[in-house]
Amino acid sequence: MECDSLVKLLMQSVNIDSYSTSSDFIGYSESCSLQNGKEVLDVFLDFFEGEFDKCILLCSVTQNIIKEEFFTNDEKENINHLIRIGWIKPDKEAEEIQKEFDCYNVENNDIDSLHKLCNLVFNGCTYGHVFFMWKEHELIVYPHDDVGFGVFAPLKTIGESIGLDFLKEIKKNRLFEVSIVR
Predict the structure, then answer these.
(1) Exposed/middle/buried for 169, CB within 10 Å: 0-12, 13-18, 19+?
(2) Structure-model confidence comparison of residues 38 and 88, the more confident one
(3) Which residue, 119, 137, 153, 169, has fewest beta-carbon neighbours within 10 Å?
(4) What does the pLDDT look like over 107-143, one tens digit per residue?
(5) How would you class 109 by CB atoms within 10 Å of its CB: exposed for 0-12, middle for 13-18, buried for 19 or more?
(6) pLDDT at res. 36
(7) H or E segment and range at residue 81
């Protein structure tokens, strides 16, 4: 499926201006500590292990220029890596970020890049939108800078069931607050 069709599908589920007001919003997890990023990312990677080859990354993201001068060397290296593979577009304008998404087929061997991208989002090093879509299941998951993930899926779908199970799995770790709205 071409990227324009995937973006239209995304926009049917996600209100880009206010994720939590989206009709398909299921809920989110968050932590008050950046130190917990590894734990929630491990849950994400373990929960969807073996399923990333069915996932499409839809992103419209650039580096956070306000924080750029404070990036650690690791963060700079990770941004440069993601720019090289095309997942981050440097110096994107705000209007482009809201409207221009790129789509990438994710492979099970992209775990290192997924790890880098999510950590950059958790640490506030990016500006824009990052979504993981499992079209077959009508499921969309996104990392966010409150060190967690949010989930979208239409009611009474396999995606809803998977999304709820994912949030419940995160909730088992008491380091995270999980809010399920349905």
Answers:
(1) middle
(2) 88
(3) 169
(4) 888 999 999 999 999 999 999 999 999 999 999 999 9
(5) exposed
(6) 78
(7) helix 73-84
